[in-house]
Design goal:
Layout (H helix, E strand, L loop, with lengths): L1 E4 L5 H10 L4 E2 L12 E3 L13 E3 L4 H7 L3 E5 L21 E3 L11 H14 L7 E5 L20 H23 L5 E5 L5 E2 L5 E2 L5 H4 E8 L4
Parallel strand pairs: 3-4, 5-6, 5-7
Antiparallel strand pairs: 1-2, 1-11, 8-11, 9-10
Length: about 220
């Protein structure tokens, strides 16, 4: 995946912007009107009509618009912002017709991605092939803590973060194969933030640092089997 950057705000605010269409943008300076848009909110201060080829909508999020167009919208959470255990944890799930969270999907669970993907495949298989589906999965494995992906390590670092990435990658093929059995699915893959591991003395991700707001992003269409 190529590197892209997005300005960091509160986590809640930024992730909401993703559902509204503002995905990570290229690092190189550009005009917002020149960017390729997948989704475009009409009459929302950014113009009345969207660029040619994009999906336009008038609802608060494109997720809710897709639901109104007959899509089954499904959210499978990972971090606690999707847990539905408090008011904040109910915000993101509320955009979807179906939303799920389990403690086994959370950050401390070493096999969280495997369990999330098992669950996702089970849900996909319950729908007929002609049912259109928008599924969002928040993989928690690369969040902290991730030191448990290297035996004996007691503190998160770049090595354990990379190990977490390899673990997530090792599970993704099963999910992609399940989607490939449906009609040419569009895949949008990105992270909402990076993490500092000592760069210029910073740790974690709750700050405006280049490492934090530089993230991977890619979208593509899967060929069907």
């Amino acid at each position: 995946m190529g590197k892209t950057a997005c300005t960091r705000d509160l986590y809640l605010s930024v992730s909401l912007r993703y559902f509204c269409r503002l995905f990570p943008s290229p690092v190189e300076p550009d005009k917002i009107c020149d960017r390729h848009a997948l989704f475009f909110p009409e009459r929302a201060g950014t113009g009345r009509t969207g660029p040619e080829g994009c999906y336009t909508y008038t609802e608060a999020t494109f997720v809710e618009s897709l639901a109104n167009q007959g899509y089954e919208t499904i959210c499978i959470g990972g971090v606690h912002f999707f847990s539905k255990r408090n008011a904040i944890g109910n915000v993101f799930p509320s955009y979807f017709k179906k939303s799920y969270w389990r403690t086994s999907f959370g950050c401390p669970e070493k096999e969280s991605t495997r369990k999330q993907i098992n669950f996702a495949i089970q849900k996909l298989q319950a729908y007929p092939d002609e049912q259109r589906i928008f599924m969002y999965i928040n993989f928690s494995a690369i969040h902290y803590p991730n030191c448990h992906y290297i035996e004996g390590k007691q503190k998160d670092d770049k090595e354990s973060h990379a190990a977490a990435f390899r673990y997530v990658d090792s599970q993704l093929l099963r999910l992609l194969e399940a989607f490939r059995k449906r009609s040419k699915p569009l895949v949008i893959a990105f992270s909402d933030h990076g993490t500092c591991y000592g760069e210029e003395g910073y740790e974690n991700h709750c700050m405006a640092h280049e490492v934090v707001y530089t993230v991977p992003y890619k979208h593509f269409i899967l060929d069907t089997v």
